[in-house]
Design brief:
Layout lengths: L21 E5 L3 H13 L3 E5 L2 H11 L3 E5 L7 H11 L5 E5 L4 H9 L4 E4 L4 H15 L11 E4 L2 E4 L4 E4 L2 E3 L3 H11 L8 H9 L8 H14 L7 E4 L3 E4 L9
Parallel strand pairs: 1-2, 1-3, 3-4, 4-5
Antiparallel strand pairs: 6-7, 7-8, 8-9, 10-11
Amino acid sequence: MTHTLSSGRAAELLRPDGTPVRVLVVDDEAALSELLSMALRYEGWQVRTAADGAGAVRAGREFRPDAVVLDVVLPDMHGLAVLGRLRHELPQVPVLFLTAKDGVEDRIAGLTAGGDDYVTKPFSLEEVVARLRGLLRRTGAAAAAKRSESVLVVGDLTLDEDSREVSRAGQDIHLTATEFELLRYLMRNPRRVLSKAQILDRVWSYDFGGQANVVELYISYLRRKIDAGRDPMIHTRRGAGYLIKAAESVPQP
Protein backbone atom coordinates (compact mmCIF):
# COMPACT_ATOMS: atom_id res chain seq x y z
CA MET A 1 0.00 0.00 0.00
CA THR A 2 1.27 3.47 -0.83
CA HIS A 3 1.81 5.57 2.30
CA THR A 4 2.69 8.88 0.68
CA LEU A 5 0.33 11.81 0.34
CA SER A 6 0.37 14.25 -2.55
CA SER A 7 1.57 17.76 -1.79
CA GLY A 8 -1.42 19.47 -3.41
CA ARG A 9 -4.94 19.17 -2.08
CA ALA A 10 -8.08 19.29 -4.15
CA ALA A 11 -10.85 21.76 -3.39
CA GLU A 12 -12.10 21.21 0.12
CA LEU A 13 -15.38 19.37 0.47
CA LEU A 14 -17.85 20.49 3.12
CA ARG A 15 -21.21 19.32 4.41
CA PRO A 16 -24.24 21.35 3.29
CA ASP A 17 -24.12 23.24 6.60
CA GLY A 18 -20.50 24.28 5.96
CA THR A 19 -18.93 21.94 8.54
CA PRO A 20 -16.22 19.37 7.70
CA VAL A 21 -17.17 16.09 6.08
CA ARG A 22 -17.40 13.16 8.52
CA VAL A 23 -16.00 9.74 7.62
CA LEU A 24 -16.21 6.53 9.63
CA VAL A 25 -13.33 4.07 9.09
CA VAL A 26 -14.05 0.47 10.09
CA ASP A 27 -11.07 -1.91 10.06
CA ASP A 28 -9.57 -4.22 12.67
CA GLU A 29 -6.00 -3.57 11.48
CA ALA A 30 -4.92 -0.70 13.73
CA ALA A 31 -1.99 0.40 11.54
CA LEU A 32 -4.15 0.54 8.42
CA SER A 33 -6.94 2.34 10.23
CA GLU A 34 -4.49 4.97 11.47
CA LEU A 35 -3.01 5.50 8.00
CA LEU A 36 -6.45 5.97 6.49
CA SER A 37 -7.46 8.34 9.28
CA MET A 38 -4.32 10.40 8.71
CA ALA A 39 -5.02 10.67 4.98
CA LEU A 40 -8.65 11.69 5.53
CA ARG A 41 -7.81 14.23 8.23
CA TYR A 42 -5.27 15.69 5.81
CA GLU A 43 -8.28 16.47 3.59
CA GLY A 44 -9.78 18.48 6.45
CA TRP A 45 -12.38 15.82 7.22
CA GLN A 46 -13.50 14.61 10.65
CA VAL A 47 -12.72 10.93 11.19
CA ARG A 48 -13.88 8.31 13.66
CA THR A 49 -12.65 4.73 13.68
CA ALA A 50 -14.10 1.39 14.77
CA ALA A 51 -12.33 -1.98 15.00
CA ASP A 52 -15.36 -4.26 14.76
CA GLY A 53 -18.94 -4.38 13.56
CA ALA A 54 -20.57 -3.56 16.87
CA GLY A 55 -18.33 -0.53 17.27
CA ALA A 56 -19.15 0.55 13.72
CA VAL A 57 -22.89 0.45 14.39
CA ARG A 58 -22.47 2.48 17.59
CA ALA A 59 -20.25 5.01 15.84
CA GLY A 60 -22.74 5.32 12.99
CA ARG A 61 -25.51 6.13 15.43
CA GLU A 62 -23.45 8.66 17.40
CA PHE A 63 -21.15 10.19 14.77
CA ARG A 64 -23.65 10.30 11.85
CA PRO A 65 -20.96 10.00 9.16
CA ASP A 66 -21.31 11.30 5.61
CA ALA A 67 -19.40 8.28 4.27
CA VAL A 68 -18.10 4.95 5.58
CA VAL A 69 -14.94 3.02 4.72
CA LEU A 70 -15.80 -0.57 5.68
CA ASP A 71 -13.60 -3.67 5.75
CA VAL A 72 -15.47 -6.74 4.55
CA VAL A 73 -13.82 -9.07 7.10
CA LEU A 74 -14.27 -8.04 10.75
CA PRO A 75 -13.73 -10.06 13.95
CA ASP A 76 -17.36 -10.14 15.10
CA MET A 77 -19.50 -10.01 11.95
CA HIS A 78 -19.27 -9.85 8.18
CA GLY A 79 -19.01 -6.44 6.57
CA LEU A 80 -22.24 -7.01 4.65
CA ALA A 81 -24.10 -7.48 7.93
CA VAL A 82 -22.56 -4.27 9.25
CA LEU A 83 -23.66 -2.50 6.08
CA GLY A 84 -27.25 -3.60 6.70
CA ARG A 85 -27.23 -2.26 10.25
CA LEU A 86 -25.59 1.02 9.24
CA ARG A 87 -28.14 1.55 6.49
CA HIS A 88 -30.93 1.00 9.00
CA GLU A 89 -29.64 4.07 10.84
CA LEU A 90 -28.33 5.99 7.81
CA PRO A 91 -30.24 4.89 4.68
CA GLN A 92 -28.35 7.13 2.23
CA VAL A 93 -24.79 6.98 3.58
CA PRO A 94 -22.30 5.96 0.85
CA VAL A 95 -20.11 2.96 1.71
CA LEU A 96 -16.68 2.13 0.28
CA PHE A 97 -15.75 -1.51 0.89
CA LEU A 98 -12.19 -2.61 1.66
CA THR A 99 -11.22 -6.23 1.16
CA ALA A 100 -8.23 -8.50 0.73
CA LYS A 101 -10.19 -10.62 -1.74
CA ASP A 102 -10.09 -9.72 -5.38
CA GLY A 103 -12.55 -12.22 -6.80
CA VAL A 104 -15.13 -10.69 -9.10
CA GLU A 105 -17.94 -12.47 -7.20
CA ASP A 106 -16.91 -10.70 -3.99
CA ARG A 107 -16.90 -7.33 -5.69
CA ILE A 108 -20.35 -7.83 -7.18
CA ALA A 109 -21.69 -9.21 -3.88
CA GLY A 110 -20.60 -6.03 -2.10
CA LEU A 111 -22.14 -3.74 -4.69
CA THR A 112 -25.40 -5.65 -5.02
CA ALA A 113 -25.75 -5.73 -1.23
CA GLY A 114 -25.85 -1.94 -1.28
CA GLY A 115 -22.21 -0.87 -1.21
CA ASP A 116 -21.35 2.05 -3.46
CA ASP A 117 -17.75 1.26 -4.37
CA TYR A 118 -15.02 -1.26 -3.72
CA VAL A 119 -11.24 -1.13 -3.18
CA THR A 120 -9.06 -4.23 -3.06
CA LYS A 121 -6.06 -4.37 -0.73
CA PRO A 122 -3.32 -3.37 -1.25
CA PHE A 123 -4.40 0.12 -2.31
CA SER A 124 -2.99 3.63 -2.25
CA LEU A 125 -4.27 6.21 0.21
CA GLU A 126 -4.78 8.60 -2.69
CA GLU A 127 -7.09 6.08 -4.36
CA VAL A 128 -9.27 5.77 -1.26
CA VAL A 129 -9.49 9.56 -0.90
CA ALA A 130 -10.39 9.94 -4.58
CA ARG A 131 -13.09 7.28 -4.37
CA LEU A 132 -14.58 8.89 -1.26
CA ARG A 133 -14.58 12.30 -2.92
CA GLY A 134 -16.49 10.83 -5.83
CA LEU A 135 -19.03 9.13 -3.55
CA LEU A 136 -19.55 12.25 -1.44
CA ARG A 137 -20.19 14.38 -4.51
CA ARG A 138 -22.36 11.71 -6.08
CA THR A 139 -24.63 11.41 -3.05
CA GLY A 140 -24.79 15.15 -2.47
CA ALA A 141 -23.38 14.70 1.04
CA ALA A 142 -20.69 17.27 0.33
CA ALA A 143 -19.91 19.98 -2.14
CA ALA A 144 -17.00 22.13 -3.24
CA ALA A 145 -17.23 25.89 -3.43
CA LYS A 146 -19.04 25.95 -6.77
CA ARG A 147 -21.96 23.84 -7.87
CA SER A 148 -23.53 23.66 -11.29
CA GLU A 149 -27.16 24.63 -11.77
CA SER A 150 -28.02 22.01 -14.31
CA VAL A 151 -31.30 20.27 -14.95
CA LEU A 152 -31.18 17.44 -17.47
CA VAL A 153 -34.33 16.71 -19.46
CA VAL A 154 -34.99 13.82 -21.84
CA GLY A 155 -38.61 13.51 -22.92
CA ASP A 156 -40.73 13.52 -19.75
CA LEU A 157 -37.77 12.49 -17.58
CA THR A 158 -36.08 15.21 -15.50
CA LEU A 159 -32.92 15.02 -13.38
CA ASP A 160 -31.81 17.93 -11.18
CA GLU A 161 -28.07 17.64 -10.57
CA ASP A 162 -28.16 20.08 -7.65
CA SER A 163 -31.13 18.78 -5.66
CA ARG A 164 -30.56 15.22 -6.93
CA GLU A 165 -34.27 14.90 -7.63
CA VAL A 166 -35.49 12.71 -10.48
CA SER A 167 -39.02 12.58 -11.87
CA ARG A 168 -40.84 11.19 -14.87
CA ALA A 169 -44.10 12.73 -16.00
CA GLY A 170 -44.18 14.59 -12.69
CA GLN A 171 -43.81 11.45 -10.57
CA ASP A 172 -40.83 11.36 -8.21
CA ILE A 173 -38.34 8.52 -8.69
CA HIS A 174 -36.00 7.55 -5.85
CA LEU A 175 -32.57 6.29 -6.90
CA THR A 176 -29.50 5.04 -5.07
CA ALA A 177 -26.27 7.00 -5.48
CA THR A 178 -24.95 4.65 -8.17
CA GLU A 179 -28.27 4.53 -10.04
CA PHE A 180 -28.36 8.34 -10.05
CA GLU A 181 -24.84 8.57 -11.47
CA LEU A 182 -25.63 6.01 -14.18
CA LEU A 183 -28.83 7.81 -15.17
CA ARG A 184 -27.02 11.17 -15.19
CA TYR A 185 -24.40 9.78 -17.59
CA LEU A 186 -27.08 8.41 -19.89
CA MET A 187 -29.05 11.67 -19.81
CA ARG A 188 -25.97 13.75 -20.54
CA ASN A 189 -25.66 11.74 -23.75
CA PRO A 190 -29.23 11.32 -25.05
CA ARG A 191 -29.68 9.12 -28.12
CA ARG A 192 -26.00 8.18 -27.96
CA VAL A 193 -25.03 4.51 -27.59
CA LEU A 194 -22.67 4.15 -24.63
CA SER A 195 -20.60 1.00 -24.38
CA LYS A 196 -20.30 -1.03 -21.18
CA ALA A 197 -16.62 -0.06 -21.01
CA GLN A 198 -17.50 3.64 -21.21
CA ILE A 199 -20.13 3.26 -18.50
CA LEU A 200 -17.75 1.36 -16.22
CA ASP A 201 -15.11 4.03 -16.63
CA ARG A 202 -17.49 6.95 -16.06
CA VAL A 203 -19.76 5.62 -13.32
CA TRP A 204 -17.40 3.38 -11.38
CA SER A 205 -14.20 5.24 -12.38
CA TYR A 206 -12.25 2.04 -12.95
CA ASP A 207 -12.35 -1.10 -15.05
CA PHE A 208 -13.93 -3.37 -12.43
CA GLY A 209 -11.86 -6.28 -13.64
CA GLY A 210 -13.41 -6.06 -17.08
CA GLN A 211 -16.71 -7.44 -15.75
CA ALA A 212 -19.55 -5.79 -17.61
CA ASN A 213 -22.30 -7.71 -15.79
CA VAL A 214 -22.42 -5.04 -13.08
CA VAL A 215 -23.51 -2.58 -15.80
CA GLU A 216 -26.27 -4.95 -16.92
CA LEU A 217 -27.37 -5.28 -13.30
CA TYR A 218 -27.67 -1.53 -12.72
CA ILE A 219 -29.32 -0.94 -16.09
CA SER A 220 -31.98 -3.45 -14.99
CA TYR A 221 -32.39 -1.57 -11.69
CA LEU A 222 -32.90 1.70 -13.58
CA ARG A 223 -35.40 0.15 -15.97
CA ARG A 224 -37.52 -1.04 -13.06
CA LYS A 225 -37.70 2.51 -11.72
CA ILE A 226 -37.70 4.57 -14.91
CA ASP A 227 -39.55 2.39 -17.42
CA ALA A 228 -41.83 0.14 -15.32
CA GLY A 229 -45.41 0.53 -16.54
CA ARG A 230 -44.39 3.21 -19.04
CA ASP A 231 -43.13 3.44 -22.60
CA PRO A 232 -39.43 2.49 -22.40
CA MET A 233 -36.70 5.12 -22.53
CA ILE A 234 -33.64 2.97 -21.82
CA HIS A 235 -32.70 0.78 -24.78
CA THR A 236 -30.13 -1.94 -25.46
CA ARG A 237 -28.15 -2.08 -28.67
CA ARG A 238 -26.82 -5.62 -28.74
CA GLY A 239 -23.07 -5.80 -28.98
CA ALA A 240 -22.79 -2.02 -28.69
CA GLY A 241 -24.22 -0.75 -25.39
CA TYR A 242 -27.12 1.29 -24.05
CA LEU A 243 -28.84 4.58 -24.78
CA ILE A 244 -31.63 6.73 -23.43
CA LYS A 245 -34.12 8.63 -25.53
CA ALA A 246 -37.60 10.09 -25.21
CA ALA A 247 -40.40 7.56 -25.31
CA GLU A 248 -42.12 7.34 -28.69
CA SER A 249 -45.29 8.92 -27.30
CA VAL A 250 -43.44 11.82 -25.65
CA PRO A 251 -41.83 14.52 -27.81
CA GLN A 252 -38.20 15.40 -27.03
CA PRO A 253 -37.94 19.04 -25.89
